[in-house]
Design brief:
Length: 252
C-alpha cells in the first residue's frame, strides 16, 4: 500500500518553499536605496587615505596639459586637495568639511575663501571637476534613488535631489557594479534633461582590502573637454592628523 502525505503537510511544505524562494529573491534584488548606500560605503571604507594623482587635461583638439595633485581624506566627509605642479598652480588648495563647507586657498592672494553654495558647480582651478566634485560626500545623503534597469554587470540607478538639498544637477544616472558595488559611470543632467557631463572610473583594483579606480575621467560633454585623474600612489589608514583638515593648514 502506498503511503500518502497528509494534505496539510504538503501545504506547509509548499508554503515553506515559497517563503524560502521569496527570501532568496529579496537577497538577490536589493532596493535602489540599499544599492546606493552600499556604493557609498565601499567608496568611503578607508579610515583615511593619502593619494597622489597625475591630472591630465585634454581639449577637443587633443592638446594636453598635466598637473599633479595630492588629496587627503578622512572618513566619508572630510577632504583636502592641493596642487603640487605646475609652478603657476602649486599650492592651490580646497578643503571640504562635514558641515558642507568648502574653502579655497589661492597662493597668489594668500587668503582662504569660503565657496558659496551657488557656485559649487563652478570649475575647480580650470579642470572639468567642480568644487562639489572635490567634496567628500555620500550620495545617499542628498539623493533619492530608483532602479532604471538591471544589466548583466551593473545596476543602473536614477538619482534625484532630496527636497531641501542644494544640488546643482536635476538628476544623475549611475552605473553600479553588482559584484563589488563600485560606481563606474555617473551621468549629470540639467533641468531640461540635457546630458552635461559624464564621470567614468576605470582600472579597478583592490588595494589593502579597498577598491580603487586607478583612472577617473570627467568629460564635459558640452565643451568636449576632459580631465583625467590617474592614481600614482595611494596609502590607506596611516592615521592622518586632524590638523591637515583645517583652513590654517591650507595656507602652509
Amino acid at each position: 500500500m502506498k503511503s500518502r502525505v497528509p494534505a496539510f503537510l504538503l501545504a506547509a511544505i509548499a508554503a515553506f518553499l515559497s517563503g524560502s524562494a521569496t527570501i532568496v529573491c529579496a537577497a538577490e534584488a536589493p532596493s535602489a536605496e540599499q544599492i546606493l548606500q552600499r556604493a557609498d560605503k565601499v567608496m568611503s571604507a578607508p579610515r583615511d587615505q593619502d593619494t597622489q594623482f597625475t591630472l591630465v587635461l585634454l581639449d577637443k583638439a587633443g592638446n594636453r596639459k598635466e598637473r599633479t595633485l595630492r588629496m587627503y581624506q578622512k572618513g566619508a566627509d572630510t577632504r583636502m586637495a592641493r596642487f603640487l605642479t605646475p609652478a603657476d598652480q602649486k599650492g592651490i588648495s580646497v578643503l571640504s568639511l562635514p558641515d558642507g563647507s568648502i574653502y579655497l586657498y589661492l597662493p597668489a592672494f594668500q587668503k582662504v575663501k569660503r565657496i558659496a553654495s551657488s557656485v559649487k558647480n563652478s570649475s575647480f582651478a580650470g579642470t572639468d571637476f567642480t568644487y562639489e566634485d572635490m567634496e567628500a560626500r555620500r550620495y545617499a545623503d542628498s539623493y533619492t534613488a530608483e532602479i532604471l534597469r538591471t544589466e548583466t554587470e551593473c545596476w543602473v540607478l536614477q538619482l534625484t535631489p532630496k527636497p531641501g538639498t542644494a544640488e546643482g544637477w536635476a538628476r544623475l544616472v549611475m552605473w553600479v557594479r553588482r559584484d563589488n558595488a563600485v560606481p563606474i559611470t555617473v551621468e549629470y543632467y540639467d533641468a531640461k534633461g540635457r546630458l552635461q557631463r559624464r564621470l567614468t572610473s576605470e582600472r579597478l583594483e583592490q588595494i589593502g582590502g579597498y577598491w580603487v579606480a586607478r583612472e577617473r575621467e570627467m568629460h564635459d560633454i558640452v565643451k568636449d573637454h576632459r580631465s583625467r585623474m590617474i592614481v600614482d600612489t595611494v596609502v590607506f589608514d596611516s592615521g592622518l592628523a586632524d590638523e591637515i583638515f583645517t583652513t590654517r593648514y591650507l595656507e602652509r
